[in-house]
């Protein structure tokens, strides 16, 4: 696959980031990403901002056009699309799960989950681990067709490992590569691959 | 009674109240004695204990951990287990006068896992086991409610497929027939849910055994140094029906009010319904007084049970119950989840009543709960004259005041320049997170409580209102607004915000006094005279980072600074050997310090 496209795609996922994060998002070597983004900057497709890069408006347009071409084959592949449909179902489950993680139903009212009820938290982490195991084969199919998607599997595994070790902020902390953060980035990645818009 | 020799099923006659065994692997839960937790697991143990306290619980038996251990060692089904399982079912049938898999008055059971130590990763409870085409018809005839029988059948298929067969099922329309469910399950798993009720039961029991070795259970045991060969028990309990007639129903009782902490029992009741109906929100439950009016003796028995359970467990209880033809059954009792205000009131009241000591009371209130209670809120009456600009679903509580900006990059730039910004978007995506982090509040036009904006705002602790409708952005753009995340409302202008003080709250003052007596370090107010000599971390580079605290605090005896308002900051100060800290509100720091000791 075209590495220039991948670097721009990684930058789109990360929005504003330095080379190491972009490289990790699309599974390319950091030095290569740096060179690619410097080149993109010279061509006016990216701009350097505060030690990182952002896509320029032109870069964004070019990237959107590339998706259709680069992923035409994948978009027409029944196995990939079927796996994607399964992802969508599990995604609905995950959204509910994260909401349950963040809120407690107390006597019919929703209050913020302050994580003082261990039993409640453990139940939800159980559900997350179960979801993770059921999702693994789906992600394997997706990665069979777009191999770099495997990077999400490693990150999800890492986040769940942290949770299992007792660091529960790795469930949904927005400032960490928590399970939810990685999941969302993966969702964004898939939406771009398929040229779809997010549905809330 | 110790399990040992085998005995025929007839030994169950008149033994409804006895703990008894038909052989080596199974014990019925009577209540006359209390078997070892290591043998029957925590859940069966609590059923046996409730029966021993004279409380009404649906009859149950347990497959002991010995059976699981044997299976773990040999990989084979323990000899005679299934024969004993049939004998156990025979006992349940006789106790309830119902028939497992029968075409009249069918017996349904729940199957749940339960190890000596409660452990994550174990199998969830399968409910309504025993449903098939035949028993669905029998249940419809008995209840006169075909829709209920069909619903119960679907719920069973759904649970069994997800929990035992580990399927990810597509979302099926409410109108989907049983055959559609069976088809979807077969497509997702290549297997069918057995029609034979015996096969269903065996399948569920083996799934419990297998869940002992789930990834999560193994990791948890590794992490907590729990041996891998303990095994789990399996509890099989009769289901009772809350929808048989007008003298049947189901509900939830809290032994005290879990929202505000009021000592009066609080609950909901739904006549002619099953527990799932309350949870699903299909029906609107009535207050508990409805039960008191309809069946005063049941209501009295329920309150008495709540009192017994609260006293025995030393904490406020959340009790699920069902009334079957005028007879009360307690399904589950556990420590109640509670709102922050209730956590504080329960803790102080129960000490005053002599039910718990002050150390226990302090352990039941978290620093975070107190922070929520003390977080800024709109002053009373502040909204009376205010102009309501928009409203939507309350997604994250808290109050945020600022100028509405509709572009994320612009929001980030202006916030970094020191301006108070409210970020308003159509919807949000990961592209917007950098703007949400710096915003005083987040507002969206589309999406509900599980939308990206709602989830991320809660993770960040930023007040958030979602789903305000199309046109909201245009209306709000550029204006100064006040966002009330608890009520889901956005008002024009900057409304007066009130920051509660712990010193004004008598219950919090009481907790402070108890905590001070035990705290490992001195926690003083920011304006105390000694504060002048404290090292101010806010003036040190990196002073906001708990990880750098030890290095910065070298040589200091006392500290102050915003980092001490977090649990991590307090822990770091303790680890650095600091003797005294100064904070704006003392109770959160005291509770964090106490929690760090345990």
Quick synopsis:
The complex is a heterodimer of chains A (200) and B (598). Chain A is built from nine helices and five strands. Chain A has helices at 3-14, 19-26, 30-42, 57-70, 72-75, 78-102, 118-145, 150-164, 179-194; strands at residues 16-17, 46-49, 52-55, 103-106, 109-112.
Keywords:
heterodimer; A: about 200 residues; mainly alpha; Arc Repressor Mutant, subunit A; 3-stranded antiparallel β-sheet; about 70% helix; B: about 600 residues; alpha/beta; Dna Ligase, domain 1; D-amino Acid Aminotransferase, Chain A, domain 1; Glucose Oxidase, domain 1; 5-stranded antiparallel β-sheet
Structural account:
The complex is a heterodimer of chains A (200) and B (598). In chain A, 68% of the residues lie in helices and 9% in strands. In chain A, a hairpin with a 2-residue loop joins strand 2 (46-49) and strand 3 (52-55). In chain A, helix 1 (3-14) packs across helix 3 (30-42) and helix 1 packs across helix 4. Chain A is mainly α. Chain A is globular and about 60 Å long. The relative contact order of chain A is 0.11. Chain A has two domains: 3-70, Winged helix-like DNA-binding domain superfamily/Winged helix DNA-binding domain (Arc Repressor Mutant, subunit A, Orthogonal Bundle); 74-194. Chain A has nine helices and five strands. Chain B is α/β, with parallel strands linked by helices. Chain B has four domains: 9-238, ATP-grasp fold, A domain (Dna Ligase, domain 1, 2-Layer Sandwich), CATH 3.30.1490.20; 249-335, D-amino Acid Aminotransferase, Chain A, domain 1 (2-Layer Sandwich); 378-498, Phosphohistidine domain (Glucose Oxidase, domain 1); 502-597, no CATH class. Helix content of chain B is 39%, strand content 19%. The model of chain B is unreliable at 1-16 (pLDDT under 50).
């Amino acid at each position: 696959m075209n590495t220039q496209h991948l670097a721009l795609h990684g930058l789109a996922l990360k929005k504003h980031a330095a080379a190491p994060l972009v490289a990790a998002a699309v599974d390319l070597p950091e030095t290569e990403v740096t060179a690619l983004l410097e080149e993109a900057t010279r061509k006016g497709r990216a701009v350097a901002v505060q030690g990182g890069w952002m896509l320029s408006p032109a870069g964004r347009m070019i990237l959107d056009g590339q998706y259709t071409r680069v992923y035409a084959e994948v978009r027409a592949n029944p196995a990939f699309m079927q796996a994607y449909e399964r992802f969508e179902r599990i995604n609905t489950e995950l959204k509910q799960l994260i909401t349950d993680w963040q809120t407690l139903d107390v006597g019919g009212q929703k209050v913020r989950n302050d994580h003082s009820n261990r039993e409640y938290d453990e139940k939800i982490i159980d559900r997350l681990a179960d979801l993770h195991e059921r999702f693994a084969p789906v992600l394997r199919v997706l990665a069979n067709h777009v191999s770099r998607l495997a990077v999400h599997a490693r990150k999800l595994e890492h986040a769940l490992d942290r949770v299992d070790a007792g660091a529960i902020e790795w469930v949904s902390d927005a400032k960490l590569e928590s399970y939810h953060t990685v999941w969302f980035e993966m969702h964004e990645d898939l939406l771009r691959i398929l040229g779809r818009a997010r549905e809330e | 009674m110790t399990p040992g020799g085998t005995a025929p099923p007839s030994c169950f006659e008149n033994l409804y109240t006895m703990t008894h065994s038909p052989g080596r692997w199974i014990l019925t839960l009577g209540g006359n004695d209390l078997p070892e937790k290591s043998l029957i697991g925590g859940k069966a143990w609590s059923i046996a204990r409730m029966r021993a306290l004279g409380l009404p619980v649906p009859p149950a038996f347990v497959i002991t951990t010995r059976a699981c251990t044997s299976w773990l060692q040999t990989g084979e089904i323990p000899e005679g287990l299934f024969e004993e399982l049939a004998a156990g079912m025979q006992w349940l049938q006789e106790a309830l006068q119902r028939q497992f898999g029968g075409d009249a008055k069918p017996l349904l059971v729940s199957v749940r896992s339960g190890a000596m130590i409660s452990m994550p990763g174990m199998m969830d409870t399968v409910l309504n086991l025993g449903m098939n085409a035949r028993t669905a018809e029998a249940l419809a005839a008995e209840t006169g409610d075909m829709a209920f029988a069909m619903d119960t059948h679907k719920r069973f298929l759904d649970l069994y497929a997800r929990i035992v067969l580990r399927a990810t099922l597509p979302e099926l329309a409410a109108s989907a027939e049983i055959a559609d469910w069976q088809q979807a399950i077969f497509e997702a798993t290549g297997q069918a849910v057995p029609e034979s009720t015996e096969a269903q039961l065996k399948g569920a029991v083996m799934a419990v055994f297998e869940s002992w070795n789930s990834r999560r259970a193994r990791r948890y045991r590794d992490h907590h140094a729990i041996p891998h060969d303990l095994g789990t028990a399996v509890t099989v309990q009769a289901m009772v029906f809350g929808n048989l007639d007008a003298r049947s129903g189901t509900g939830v009782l809290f032994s005290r009010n879990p929202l505000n902490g009021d000592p009066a029992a609080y609950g909901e009741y739904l006549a002619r319904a099953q527990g799932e109906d309350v949870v699903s929100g299909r029906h609107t439950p009535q207050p508990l007084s409805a039960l008191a009016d309809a069946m005063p003796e049941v209501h009295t028995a329920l309150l008495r049970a709540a009192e017994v359970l609260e006293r025995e467990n030393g904490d406020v209880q959340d009790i699920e119950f069902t009334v079957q033809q005028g007879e009360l059954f307690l399904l589950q009792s556990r420590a109640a989840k509670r709102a922050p205000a209730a956590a504080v009131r329960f803790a102080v009241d129960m000490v005053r009543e002599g039910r718990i000591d002050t150390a226990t009371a302090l352990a039941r209130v978290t620093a975070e709960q107190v922070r929520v209670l003390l977080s800024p809120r709109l002053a009373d009456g502040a909204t009376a004259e205010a102009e309501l600009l928009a409203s939507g679903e309350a997604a994250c509580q808290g109050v945020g005041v600022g100028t509405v900006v509709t572009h994320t990059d612009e929001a980030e730039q202006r916030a970094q320049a020191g301006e108070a910004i409210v970020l308003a978007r159509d919807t949000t995506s990961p592209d917007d997170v950098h703007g949400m982090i710096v915003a005083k509040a987040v507002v969206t036009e589309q999406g509900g409580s599980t939308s990206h904006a709602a989830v991320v705002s809660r993770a960040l602790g930023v007040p958030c209102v979602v789903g305000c409708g199309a046109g909201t952005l245009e209306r709000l753009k550029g204006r100064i607004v006040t966002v009330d995340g608890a009520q889901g409302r956005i008002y024009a202008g900057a409304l007066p915000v009130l920051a509660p003080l712990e010193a004004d709250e008598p219950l919090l003052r009481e907790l402070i006094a108890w905590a001070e007596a035990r705290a490992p370090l001195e926690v003083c107010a920011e304006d105390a005279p000694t504060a002048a000599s404290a090292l101010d971390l806010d003036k040190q580079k990196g002073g906001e980072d708990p990880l750098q605290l030890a290095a910065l605090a070298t040589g200091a005896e006392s500290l102050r600074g915003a980092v001490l308002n977090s649990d991590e900051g307090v822990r770091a100060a303790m680890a650095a050997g600091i003797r005294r800290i100064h904070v704006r509100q003392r109770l959160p720091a005291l509770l964090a310090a106490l929690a760090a000791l345990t």
